[in-house]
Design brief:
The structure is a homodimer. With about 250 residues, chain A is α+β, with helices and mostly antiparallel strands. Chain A folds into two domains: about 170 residues, NADH Oxidase (3-Layer(aba) Sandwich), CATH 3.40.109.10; about 50 residues, no CATH class. Helices cover about 50% and strands about 15% of the residues of chain A. In chain A, helix 2 crosses helix 6. The termini of chain A are far apart. Strand 1 of chain A pairs parallel with strand 5 of chain B.
């Protein structure tokens, strides 16, 4: 396989030069050949190139500079709208106003998103996923004028890299791979698996910058806090409900 | 980019020969370099190679023959278990028992799954996603002994292709790509976008085999029925709840 899988890093700074329309189309075409449930293609991709639209999306993504600086912003959505319309126009009664169908469409959308990212990175482009797509799905729905049946699940910025950041660490493969059955972790195993990560200079810096005692506390108390998670859970469930995937 | 993106097809029949452990490890290593929220790696991969375990998984996947015939079955899970254990062991209080955290982990899991699939296909391997992973997540949880905090979201069979099926059709790119804003579909647009698909010989055969009037009815009345979707929605939500991601 090509080396990009192993050398990649998330890119947050992009050159000013544009992304050629033909190349983007080729990347998106690669994306839609990926697996999709029953060949229903229950997803959609909103391409944002317009400066004004990027400015409107920026606050939704907590004003992360990638949104206005990247030549292209892609919003991948779970989408039963087109499929439902087709069904109704063909004397068929769609039954997709439920949670399973939302998950089916969301998984389809992420499969396409990641295929697009792999194809783009192989071409030398850089990408960055923005978690804010689920946090603020409601506002994205408004800005991009998404109809019922459509819910954003992933946003990706894409462009030519203007940085070569250090490659982030990953846990050893055995931390995430289980053979035959899930082998739950003993305290000793957790210590072993996280030792290297915790010893890194950037982890130590992270702890002291945030006035914390442990790296884990930086996650639980600063970056991914319970109160935020609970707040955004309610908001996201409301969007899924409003877009017609959960009973009222 | 490599041509696999454009020539790929889902593979359901595999050669009897095994998948080399070194190659599998390389593919999984490619997978875990993919983007992950905050570098938390809140996912896990269960590798099934054992014949007995495949037999136990088979009924869960509606006895689709790929499960017992493929040398490798991979179950990708949303997984906060390891992360939560690490937090608790480091005087940090995890706040991930909510729907947003489930979605974060599920998206992470699918990003890894699709990276693994792209890498495998580039090596000449064939893959097939099984939608049954979400339908029967509860049974998978039992068979693979998944602890609280872990929910299966995607199952992939993998092996050396023993077939070259016809490449399935896809809708034109403009059916799934929207520029700047969602451009909703008029009846005329739906007709245009689905014309080629509906005219295909295999679509016509599909309709007559199922005694239906339209292709859309094959989906709504036979393949992805409302009653099934609603039944499996309840089941899947129950698993998410039981595994600790929704308030009781």
């Amino acid at each position: 396989m090509n080396s990009t899988y192993f050398t990649r890093r998330t890119i947050r700074k992009y050159e000013a030069r544009d992304l050629d329309e033909g190349l983007l189309e080729r990347i998106l075409t690669a994306g839609i050949r990926a697996s999709t449930t029953g060949n229903m293609q229950v997803y959609s991709i909103i391409v944002t190139r317009d400066k004004e639209m990027k400015k409107r999306l920026a606050p939704v993504h907590f004003n992360q500079p990638m949104v206005t600086e990247a030549p292209v912003v892609l919003t991948f959505c779970a989408d039963f709208n087109r499929f439902n319309k087709w069904c109704r126009q063909r004397d068929a009664h769609p039954g997709y106003e439920n949670f399973l169908s939302f998950m089916t469409a969301a998984i389809d959308a992420v499969i396409v998103a990641q295929t697009v990212c792999c194809a783009a990175e192989e071409e030398g482009l850089g990408i960055c996923y923005l978690g804010t797509a689920t946090y603020n799905a409601g506002q994205i729905t408004d800005v991009l004028e998404l109809p019922e049946g459509v819910v954003p699940v992933a946003t990706v910025t894409m462009g030519w890299p203007a940085e070569v950041p250090e490659q982030p660490d990953r846990l050893p493969l055995k931390a995430v791979v289980h053979r035959e059955k899930y082998r739950d972790f003993t305290p000793q195993m957790i210590d072993d698996l996280y030792r290297e990560k915790e010893a890194r200079a950037d982890s130590q810096q992270f702890i002291s910058e945030n006035n914390k005692q442990t790296l884990a506390q930086v996650f639980t108390d600063v970056r991914y806090k319970k109160t935020d998670n609970e707040y955004f859970s309610e908001k996201f469930l409301e969007v899924i409900r409003k877009q017609g995937f959960l009973p009222l």
